[in-house]
Automatic annotation (TrEMBL):
One of its GO terms (biological process) is methylation. This is O-methyltransferase. Residues 139-316 form the O-methyltransferase C-terminal domain. The keyword S-adenosyl-L-methionine applies. InterPro entries: COMT-like, COMT_C, SAM-dependent_MTases_sf, WH-like_DNA-bd_sf. It comes from Mucilaginibacter oryzae. One of its GO terms (molecular function) is O-methyltransferase activity.
Length: 331
């Protein structure tokens, strides 16, 4: 296969995870969700969780999927049936046909929603295990192979989206292999970059950086939750696919530690953000199931407005959005 004919990685992910759309619909039909919503005209997320009989954050995942599939509408913090659902899914005979069609094994998917297990990063945060055991950071796939190459590409894309020419020192918090910073520096070689991550991670990050011959990127071992010693002269900070791993309260802790460390800073939050009406992009809905954990220990995929609200709550006064990016400034 030639390079020109290869599928983008995002398309492959969509193909691999397309079954989850059917799983979500089957769960909704099993619980008569659309009939229950129609009886009440519109329902809150809390009520949706009651109907589905699952944890709140799991119900949020289901709701995002259904909104993305245009089966639910999300307005004013409530959910209602879309015209598509009203026309077809409120027909019991049609619903039974769908259930029969989708009658296949999806026990693991349901178990993840109804009985979510702690994600590895919470085991690390709570000191229940070490990084190498639960996250496989020594694995080439995670640190230096496919995942690293994906980060480099995303860094290049961000460099084409955001103008770094007026900045001199980029701090990449939770930067793992350093791929985002390397991608950015390939476009803006004047930037000095440091990767801030846990000591076990930065030990490997340093090897990846040395292998790539990047003499202007370094590492800073630390903990973004517990007294992080951020360099005072950084003028732009990147959080790329980091915040979605944590609960809202943990997000605020991470962001407050950044906010209080700098009198003046530009913060770039790069995520697979959900649209404010939760109707896409569908690929971003897939991410929400990958980071799901038990309530109070769950990641979640925020919408643009949810992230903007959190940043403003922390204290950032200037907040704006771009594609897959929310930019916040202090000072």
């Amino acid at each position: 296969m030639t390079e020109d004919s290869s599928l983008p990685l995002d398309n492959i992910n969509m193909i691999l995870w397309s079954k989850t759309y059917g799983y979500v619909l089957e769960i909704a039909l099993e619980k008569d969700l659309f009939f229950a919503v129609e009886r009440q005209t519109a329902v809150s997320l809390e009520r949706l969780a009651e109907i589905l009989e699952m944890p709140l954050m799991s119900a949020r995942v289901i709701a995002q999927y259904l909104c993305g599939l245009k089966l639910l509408n999300f307005n004013d913090s409530e959910f209602s049936n879309s015209e598509l659902s009203k026309n077809y899914l409120l027909n019991e005979a049609f619903s039974r046909e769908i259930e029969a069609f989708s009658a296949r094994t999806f026990t693991n998917f349901k178990d993840q929603l109804y009985h979510p297990v702690p994600q590895p990063w919470y085991e690390i945060k709570n000191r229940d295990n070490n990084i190498a055991n639960v996250h496989g950071i020594s694995n080439d796939f995670f640190m230096a192979g496919t995942q690293h190459n994906w980060r480099v590409q995303k860094g290049k894309e961000l460099a084409g989206q955001f103008d770094f020419s007026g900045y001199s020192y980029l701090l990449d918090i939770g930067g793992a292999s350093g791929g985002w910073a390397m991608g950015i520096r390939s476009v803006y070689p004047h930037l000095r970059c440091d990767i801030f991550d846990l000591p076990d991670v930065t030990a490997i990050t340093k090897l990846v950086i040395e292998k790539n011959g990047d003499n202007n990127t370094g590492v800073i071992p630390g903990d973004m939750f517990n007294d992080p010693q951020y360099p005072v002269d950084a003028d732009v900070i990147l959080l790329a696919n980091v915040l979605h791993d944590w609960t809202r309260s943990d997000m605020i802790t991470i962001l407050k530690n950044i906010y209080v460390a700098y009198p003046q800073i530009t913060l770039l939050v790069s995520e697979l953000f959900i649209e404010d009406n939760w109707q896409g992009p569908l690929l971003h809905m897939i991410q929400s199931i990958l980071i799901l954990g038990p309530d109070q220990k769950s990641g979640w995929q925020p919408s643009y407005s949810e992230m903007e609200d959190i940043l403003k709550e922390v204290g950032f006064g200037k907040v704006r959005r771009e594609l897959n990016l929310v930019i916040a400034k202090k000072g």
